[in-house]
Write a structure and sequence with these properties.
Layout: E1 5-12, E2 14-23, E3 26-34, E4 42-47, E5 52-57, E6 61-66, E7 71-77, E8 85-88, E9 94-100, E10 106-112, E11 117-123, E12 130-133, E13 139-143, E14 157-162, E15 169-173, E16 176-180
Parallel strand pairs: 14-16
Antiparallel strand pairs: 1-2, 2-3, 4-5, 5-6, 6-7, 8-9, 9-10, 10-11, 12-13, 13-14, 15-16
Length: about 180
């Protein structure tokens, strides 16, 4: 989180980004710009270092900006279905994005922000209403019965993904499942 800047996203037809800069005891308006061509809801917007931030809509259109230079750093459209989720790693060097792609496969993207390196992993059917990062740096997905197809009576699921491992193991303990990469 930036101590120098604050970020506000407004929806006025298209999405508008407003960046405020710390001055004295308050903040002044530093930079305003529209997200041209993007009328979809913004589901993630956050600073990943003191001056740089990301903005992503619910279809996975991601843009990164530098508030100090007032520039677009990069943009990637992951072309997900609505309800894309994202979370920054604890050290804010990586962005994790979970979505269902155009082929209807569940995906997890690990984006290394300083090198703009994208790694994509296919996931089992674990996407749900929540994607969080735990204190140990692992990702936590939560899915409820009402989200399962064909309205089968299935209890809620918790899935944990270890982001620093490259092997794929599945451990099932009661109502809780864990998947490690």
């Amino acid at each position: 989180m930036s101590q120098t800047y604050k970020l506000i996203i407004d929806k006025e037809g298209v999405n508008h980004v407003k960046v405020f800069k710390a001055e004295g005891d308050g903040y002044t308006n530093h930079w305003n710009f529209p997200l041209t061509g993007d009328e979809d809801p913004i589901v993630f917007s956050e600073f990943y270092n003191e001056t740089q931030f990301v903005v992503m809509n619910w279809n996975g259109w991601l843009r990164a900006y530098d508030a100090a230079d007032k520039t677009l750093l990069f943009e990637i459209d992951f072309k997900g279905n609505i309800d894309v989720k994202a979370v920054l790693s604890l050290d804010k060097t990586k962005l994790y994005i979970a979505f269902r792609n155009e082929s209807n496969h569940n995906c997890l993207v690990q984006l290394t922000l300083d090198a703009i390196k994208v790694e994509t992993f296919e996931l089992p059917d674990i996407l749900g209403k929540s994607l969080q990062i735990r204190k140990d740096g692992n990702l936590l997905f939560y899915r409820t019965d009402s989200e399962h197809k064909q309205h089968k009576s299935i209890p809620p699921f918790l899935f944990c993904i270890g982001c620093n491992k490259l092997r794929r193991n599945r451990i099932r303990i009661g109502l809780c499942s864990a998947i490690c990469f």
